[in-house]
Write a structure and sequence with these properties.
Keywords: Transferase. This is Aminoglycoside 3'-phosphotransferase-2. The chain is α+β, with helices and mostly antiparallel strands. The protein has two domains: about 90 residues, Phosphorylase Kinase, domain 1 (2-Layer Sandwich); about 160 residues, Aminoglycoside phosphotransferase (APH), C-terminal lobe (Aminoglycoside 3'-phosphotransferase, Chain: A, domain 2), CATH 3.90.1200. It starts with a helix and ends in a 5-residue tail after the last helix. The structure holds adenosine-5'-triphosphate and magnesium ion. The site of adenosine-5'-triphosphate has 19 residues, from β3 and β5.
């Protein structure tokens, strides 16, 4: 870490004891644990332009939610903008991603309990009255399609123009918007004491289409009826149709 960044960090959180790179790294950022006299922090750093923008958005979301304490996310401590990198400082949470927890689950009973808790956690989140501070637009899906178009035109996505045009002409009938995580895979929820209790990676958190979260949540379980049943034991709001699942998981998600 360069000295300038180190000094700025200490200004924010006090004397630093130790910095360690986490074993589990994300795809778009570098994550480190920072230990001070008082506590541990998570430093999330991004270097590519597009990922720096996402990190900035994540910082804004965490900052807004800090005052609310209504949604379970890490606590926000600061954002540092450097010439070629951006850095978000949040609370270090003692837990592990659901992906890791499932890989380590010692029995199918524990596996199902974890998946059910994910369903319950997402159910409760979608049932909450949307926070207006999280809303970006009145039409979330339209906003995503515009973003996707920009990424296609600028060669920043694996999704094709053909797929995008298909998504534009085959929009699912709209549903009542709810708060959504916006990248609700098993990688981005945290298991604490045996149950899913926290969202991480919250750049996409806003008011939007809950079927997007639901589709990404079940993508790892879709071919396993027992896993899927466990999820819907917890998530009781609505079940996406096969068509809706495909639209969101194999359609829209391709662009992000
Ligand atoms: N607040 C936190 N406390 C502890 N560990 C965390 C925290 N936030 C993230 N992590 C760890 O860092 C890893 C990467 O975090 P995150 O998902 O936010 O990064 P990312 O680069 O955006 O991921 P991707 O692009 O792959 O979705 C997580 O898998 C998790 O293990
Ligand atoms: Mg992630």
């Amino acid at each position: 870490m360069n000295e300038g960044l180190f000094i700025k960090l200490e200004e924010l959180i006090g004397s630093i004891y130790e910095i360690e790179k986490l074993n589990e790294q994300g795809c778009t950022s570098e994550v480190r644990r920072i230990i001070t006299d008082h506590r541990s922090y998570l430093l999330k750093s991004a270097f590519k332009e597009r990922y720096r923008k996402w990190l900035n958005t994540e910082a804004q979301v965490l900052k807004k939610l800090n005052t609310e304490k209504l949604i379970s996310v890490p606590e926000y401590f600061g954002f540092i903008l450097e010439k070629n990198s951006s850095h978000l400082i949040m609370s270090f949470e003692g837990g592990l991603t659901l992906t890791t927890a499932l890989n380590r689950a010692p029995s199918s009973t524990e596996r199902k309990a974890l998946i059910k808790s994910f369903g319950e956690f997402l159910h409760q989140f979608h049932e909450k009255k949307p926070l207006e501070i999280l809303r970006n637009s009145s039409d979330w899906l339209e906003e995503q399609l515009i973003k996707a178009q920009f990424y296609v035109e600028n060669g920043q996505t694996e999704g094709s123009l053909k797929l995008l045009n298909h998504l534009k002409t085959n929009k699912p009938l709209s549903v009542i918007p709810t708060m959504i995580h916006g990248d609700c895979t098993t990688d981005n929820v945290f298991v604490i004491d045996g149950a899913v209790k926290l969202f991480i990676d919250v750049a996409g958190m806003t008011v939007g289409d809950p079927r997007y979260d639901e589709s990404l949540a079940i993508r790892e379980f879709i071919n396993n009826p027992e896993d899927l049943a466990a999820f819907y034991d917890g998530y009781k709001r609505y079940r996406v149709t096969e068509e809706e699942f495909k639209y969101f998981d194999q359609g829209l998600y391709e662009f992000f």
